[in-house]
Amino acid sequence: MPSSFEHEPALTVAASNTTAGAAVKWVAAKNIGESLIILDSGGNGRIGLAGDLDLITLTANTVTVAGTVAATTLTGAGAGITALAAANITASGTLPALNGAALTALNGTQVTSGTIPVAQLGSSGSRSSSTFLNGANAWAAAGRETTTIIKVSIESSPSNTTLQNDNELYFAMAANTTYFVELLLQAGGTNDGGGLKVGWALPTGATYKAWSWGMQNNSVGTAHVSTNSHQQGDWTIVTGASGKNCSNLLIRSRIANGSNTGNAQFQWAQEASSGNAATMAAGCVMTYIVVN
Question: What was the pLDDT predicted at 31?
């Protein structure tokens, strides 16, 4: 027996408008409106209401809806949704992991949390603790920072030929790092036979080379020029001969530290024992900088 939606023999209905080849009009039993199913002259199907014939259009492999689709659930890959405005994505939740290759216009102000991996920054250069990302989006050597230490208090070394640590002129060295150090010193008590010698106390494995200049006999000249490459050691700035005076001194050193951390400690003492103390004045300056 035919169902309520079948008719035997076939039912032929005349067209209801100029575009339709055939139309079936459904009249609701309880006055809830009328609907139409139309087969147009092109072989396409349409489903609509009496006053709107094109709500749903059926063509080969395509269903076109004119208006709003209201559904509890939509399923499928969604590959054909190509023009969805981001403003219309209002549901809460978490996006799945995506490669983001097509996300090319994200405003940087919207990145408000998290950390961008260093590997994703910069287009050239080597990334390390001694480089920085410059304005050309390239990694470059960081600028070298100079550190200055100013001696606050005068210090003395009476009748003592053993090198002593200066109370203020020292700094901590990192392992496997080279420093350039400059000392501007004002020494006293060097002209009465005591003289002055200086040196560095360094971590095991560190070496240095040093150069020194000064004022001798109250006139411009070289008090002593010395090159040292010792792990530990000292050299004489002013001899203990009477009348040899050197009060203003410039010492430059290149210190290469090894694998051990520790202080670069400036030391000084009398070159020969004397009753008058050798002194190092307040205001002496030590400046150092990392060179590798």
Answer: 47
CATH, domain 147-290, list 3.40.1350, 2.60.120, 2.60.40, 1.10.3210: 2.60.120
* Backbone region of residue 33 per phi and psi (left: phi > 0; alpha: psi in -120 to 50; beta: other values): left
Domains of the chain, residue spans: 20-65, 147-290
* DSSP SS3 for 88: helix
Distance CA 51, CA 34 (A): 9
| pLDDT tens column, 27-59 | 544 444 555 565 555 566 666 665 666 677 777
Q: What is the pLDDT of residues 177-209, one digit of tens each?
A: 999 999 999 888 766 667 788 889 999 999 998
> Which two structure tokens, joined as six digits, stand for 94?
């978490």
With 0.70 as the threshold, say if the pTM is over it.
no
